[in-house]
Amino acid sequence: MPISSVVVTLSQDGVVAEAALSILSADPRWTLGAPNGRHVPAVLDTTSLEDAVSLTEDALRIDGVQFVDVVGVDFSDLSEQEAT
Amino acid sequence: MKRRALLQSAAMAMATTAAARLAGGDEVSAEGAEPARRRLPLSPDLVWDKAPCRFCGTGCHVEVGVQKGKVVAVRGDLQAEVNKGLLCVKGYHVGLALYGKDRLTQPMLRKDGELVPISWDEAIDIVAQRAELDGFALYGSGQWTIPEGYAGNKLMKAGLGSNHIDPNARLCMASAVTGFLSVYGVDEPAGCYDDLDRCDVLILWGNNPAEMHPVLWSRVLERKVAGEDVKLIDIGTRETRSSGFCDHVLTMKPQGDLAIANGIARLLLERGTYDKAFVDAHCAFRAHGDKPTLQGEAISFEQFKEGLAPYTPEHVEELSGVKPDDLRMLADLFGRRDLRITSLWCMGMNQHTQGTAINALVHGIHLLSGHFGRPGDAPTSLTGQASACGTVSEVGTLAHGLPGGLLVENAEHRKEAEAIWNVPPGRVNPKPGHHTVEMWKRFCTPKSQGGDIQTIWVMVTNPGQTMPNLNALVAPSRKLDGKFLIVSDVYPTATTKIADLVLPSAMWVEKNGMFGNSERRTQQWFKMVEPPGQARDDAWQLLAVARRLHDRGHPGMKDKDGKFLFDVAGPDGKSVPVWEWEHYYDVNVDERLFEEYRKFTRFKHKDLAPYAEYVKARGLRWPVIQHEDGVWRETKFRFVEGEDRYVKKDAGVQFYHSTSKDDRAQIWLHPYTAPPEVPDAEFPFWLCTGRVIEHWHTGTMTRRIPELWRSMPNAYVEVNAKDADRLGVKNGDRLALESRRGKLELPVWIDGRGAPPQGTLFVPFFDETMLVNVLTLEAYDPFSKQPDYKKCAVRAKKVVST
Questions:
Q1: Domain annotation covers residue B445
Q2: Smallest Cβ distance to B8: which of A3, A36, A39?
Q3: Which residue in B710, B89, B695, B72 sits closest to A56, CA to CA?
Q4: Among B587, B606, B625, which residue terminates a domain?
């Protein structure tokens, strides 16, 4: 059950950015913090790292989301990784 | 507060801090957050320490969280100038690279075709016995830490008196080095990543930073998104993820870069828009004479101009495919003094049979136009490995090199090295050893036919996957009597699978280490967790072999005073038996090796600070000079007065290692030459190889991180849609590729990420189940000896299931 710290960077177009923020706010998997300009801190609490990666990739497809930067991941609850 | 809630709160604090940093503030104002330097840990019982990321040459710093002896968290380091708290997809998974379940944990020797466990004592004995014989070579890496590379170099050159040591960086950045040497007389970039924050124009020469150096790329895009007027130009043989963000995408024919660079230079001269004052004051002109050398021969400005005369925009279009208007656009930009222009390149220009030439030509355009020496005005090469610059270029782990940029062929340099190593005069062999391709070629040749390399000890790299033309340069050795392959690594690889002896290594934060990144930044970290099983540090392995040779009476393992070559004294002045694993960490061996190595760095003005300075910093860019106030300060821009302390007062710009001995840089004339192999009726496609964002190099680490592996599980062949139609294939079909050297089947990805031009195929090399290097060409640059992985000819045919 990893916890990821991310920063979502929104578009400079205020209307589109607001719409993107609404979409993310409505998704319970996203916990959003106080925006700092166009940069919105967020936390993803997911069942796997793969889910976290998918979520960030999905977010990138939202009109109005410019970047999603992952700044930290706590994977202390993960079991040993499976080798390929 | 419950633990999970606490973790979430701490994670939000981290994200808020990073958001504030991105928004431009050093201190955090958002409620609940901490200032950057006092932020909350992600988990209250973690111990955090700093380390550079294990993967590419960008040199991002991560903070590593350790709990109960295991790495359990990583976060971008906000104190790191390189990445300012950000990481790429590989970086934030880097901690998981330690924990693949098939880590190598014990030495293994091949007996009757099978690798069977043996003791470390027996393994070290076997390596020492092989090192005593003729034909012993060490094949190292740009992923060696600086102390590891230094120990390997010293073992070979000061101990065994042999120069048969070369690194995998020969395959990735050797042409950048020879480019720098031929132009400035000393290697590595004059500028740094700060140029990315200041340039008005960024030109990518065969470079895809969106996938290969994503943190640097996001640093540039952030400026663009914020509304800054930064023009991005992509010049390459295929479109990439970087292309989508660029204002201009110039798709060229393979090898067309030589023509484009010459065409820009010609237009600058024709229009009179070159920087005459800069050129008159700081530059000279060079070309090859009858016998080409790295230094070349002086030519006049008129001869230079005459040599460029054929490169009209129309002729450049014939050679490169780039339209005359696009060439004029580039020349317009270089002709403007009010702009700041940074050029970036990596493997596209380096893995090139004219790699030295194209590197020199791009430097030449910057010099000719005066786009040099101001922040944002810089020609800058990037490296692919974490310490290609630090351990290879700087430590000199090359067949012709000595630490600090010295050369084995130079008698004065040998004398300096022998003095620092305290070994008798004549110990350092003046004859360069075999460079990488030659080393492996001779390893694959019977001794009776001139194959004078009998043993190769491979450390921290995977030549069984990365060497070009694998069927000729690796496979034959496995069938020859007397050839012995030793591999030190952390996981089973394509190379360990064919090895005679496998030694399990510690990796990354399982050991102390130092790396040197692409911008001359030397970085340090401490061991944080224990390696698994019997895995041990590579530096320890080298020292243990040296000691075993010493104990077996090898004269080279003693210095002039009769002391062990790697003698390490403890605080009480007595020797510490660091060759015994249980005593290896009684002292900081890295620090001792580094402090000795540091003595070499003054010769070429690559001065490094004492080890303790790197413990405090997130890396320092050399030359690092102690100023009058006692503070050690780094250098951002070399050769520039006010920034570089080695530049004379009032000189403005001074190329103080000039090959013409007059403080001038060399602007080269290098005519266009065709690639050594081009498509024809029999082999009609160009093949280009490279990397993808999810995987690093041969995937030995990233393919063991499930999230990355699932994102990109296997290699593929990227095919243009029209070519796919003609070949009758759709996505997922298999295509058989064949070159004059080998065959390989791959699944088809139409257009893929790269939108390849018609007639061009691309295959990534990360997948050990589909070794694309059975197809590639071993032809190499005449000066750097770096092979060309970017262009060879293949044919393609749909695989029909039976």
A1: yes
A2: A3
A3: B89
A4: B587
Tell me the C-alpha distance between B299 and B315, whole Å.
24
Q: Domain of B724: which CATH number?
A: 2.40.40.20
Q: How far apart are CA B138 and CA B463, in angstroms?
A: 12
Q: Is residue A82 part of a domain?
A: no
Which residues form the domain of B760?
685-798
- Give the pair of three-digit tokens for residue B557: 């393992």
Task: Please report the beta strands in B70-197, taking only residues with DSSP state E, as ranges in sequence order.
Answer: 70-76, 108-111, 114-117, 136-140, 165-167
Determine the Cα angle at B607 with ends B601 and B608, to 5°: 95
B687, B739 contact by CB (below 8 A): yes
Among A69, A77, A80, A82, most B C-beta atoms within 10 A, so best to mutate, is A69
We report the CATH number of the domain holding residue B304 as 3.40.228.10
Residues B502, B218: Cα–Cα separation, whole Å: 40
- Report the alpha-carbon distance of residue B246 to residue B233 in Å, rounded: 6
CA B29, B31, B36, B38 dihedral sign is positive
Task: Tell me whether residue B347 is one of the annotated catalytic residues.
Answer: yes
Give residue B487's Cα distance to chain centre.
20
Mean pLDDT of all residues in chain B?
94
> Which residue has tokens 């170099």?
B153
Residues of A in contact with B76 (CB under 8 A): 71-72
Q: What percent of chain B stands above pLDDT 90? A: 88
Domain boundary residue among B321, B348, B383? Answer: B383
Q: Are B664 and B284 in contact (CB under 8 A)?
A: yes
Closest by CA position to A46, among listed A24, A58, A66, A28: A28
Instruction: Name the closest residue on chain B to residue A51, using Cα atoms.
Output: B707
CB contact under 8 A, B11 and A74: yes
Task: Give start and end residues of each alpha helix (H) in B632-754.
Answer: 706-711, 721-727
How high is the pLDDT of residue B43?
Answer: 57
Structure tokens at B442: 């001779």
Report how far apart, in Å, the C-alpha atoms of B286 and of each of B176, B300, B363 are: 18, 8, 13
**Contacts A–B by Cβ distance under 8 A:** 153
Task: Kindly state the average pLDDT of the residues B621-630.
Answer: 97
> B513-516 and B665-668: which strand pairing?
unpaired
Number of H helices, E strands in chain B: 23, 31
CB contact under 8 A, A72 and B14: yes
Residues for chain A: how many in total? 84
The reply to whether B156 belongs to the active site is no
* Torsion angle (degrees, nearest 10) of CA B363, B367, B372, B378: -20
Query: Residues B158, B428: contact at Cβ < 8 Å?
Result: yes
Average pLDDT of span B552-572: 97
Q: Which sign does the torsion angle of CA B435, B440, B446, B452 carry?
A: positive
The CA distance from B78 to the nearest CA of chain A, in Å, is: 9
Reported as type and span, the H/E element at residue B222 is: helix B214-225
Q: Show the tokens assigned to B690.
A: 């490279």
What's the pLDDT at B36?
A: 34
B39 pLDDT more than 50: no
Look up B244 and say whether it is catalytic. Answer: no
Chain segment B25-36, per-residue pLDDT in tens: 433 332 333 333
Tokens 């160009």 sit on residue: B686
Residue B173 bears catalytic tag: yes
